Amino acid sequence: MKRILLLIILNCIVLSCINDNTVTKEKKHNFSFYIPEMDLTITTSKQVGAKFYTLFSKDSIVWLPDSIVSLPDTIDYIINQTHEMGPINIILNPAQKDSIYIYEDEYIKHIQGFNYKLCVLTHKEFDTRFFESRISTHPLILKYPYIHIVIFPNTYVIASDSYKITQKIIKEGSIYGY
What we know:
11 strands; alpha+beta; six-stranded mixed sheet; five-stranded antiparallel sheet
């Protein structure tokens, strides 16, 4: 009886490990979404080593490897370090489709611009240029015609605000970051 119970327990442990590996392989590391007002596709990729890539292109980047070693100079992208606090804040202006504004962050490790001007702005510049004047305890109100993209690398949640719509969730992540 003890042997049978031991065999059942061992089988359960082995099967749970096999199931865990299949779930791990199914995790999505890459996600793309399209911003029609800008004719822009944003592709994000969460990589091993706490790296989070945000790529900008007119066309969809169809394939990205699970492990990015390097990207060509002809691709516009940002590399961030994945961390617990602080999202990646990006502002797009449909009237200036060649410029992408990025909130200055200590976790930005590299910025590569080729087709777009990737402009890094301080907190004050970012706040005063793109949001209505307010008391600091009031919520941010985006000015016309800007689009605000917020990416949380640690949980892989992506949201968008625009002058027309309040927040819209583009990708719902999880506490595991996928």
